[in-house]
Amino acid sequence: MNKYELAVVVSAKIEDEERAAVVDKCKALIERFGGTVTNVDDWGKKRLAYEVQKMKEAFYYFIQFDAESTAPIEIESRVRIMDNVIRFLCVKQDA
Predict the structure, then answer these.
(1) What is the pLDDT of residues 42-55, one digit of tens each?
(2) Mean predicted lDDT score pLDDT of the chain
(3) CB 88 within 8 A of CB 6
(4) Residue 85 CA, distance from chain mean position
(5) pTM of the predicted structure, to 2 decimals
(6) How far apart are CA 59 and CA 85, in angstroms?
(7) Euclidean distance between the first and final Cα of the chain, in Å?
(8) Which residues have a Cβ under 8 Å from the Cβ of 61 and sit 6 or more positions away?
(9) What is the rounded CA–CA span in Å between residue 65 and residue 42?
(10) For the chain, what is the radius of gyration of the CA atoms?
(11) CA-to-CA distance for 34 and 70, rounded, in angstroms?
């Protein structure tokens, strides 16, 4: 099992319940592909470095998880097509 971190930038134009649903869906994807969520870090609303889809602000979430090396590819392919996720990045953490 490797340690990974999934950074998800969620649209600021949606309601709190929808935003929570997006994060829950990401956690469910991780568990679906054999991962174990260890921590979810909510950074809240931050200003974007540049305008994305006519938005200047968005909500940042960092999800740490343990998974096999094949899981991030599957997770990224599903997160890529999720509504309200404007950017994402999955990286392997050093042990």
Answers:
(1) 999 999 999 998 99
(2) 93
(3) yes
(4) 8
(5) 0.90
(6) 10
(7) 11
(8) 7, 8, 9, 10, 23, 26, 40, 41, 42, 43
(9) 15
(10) 13
(11) 10
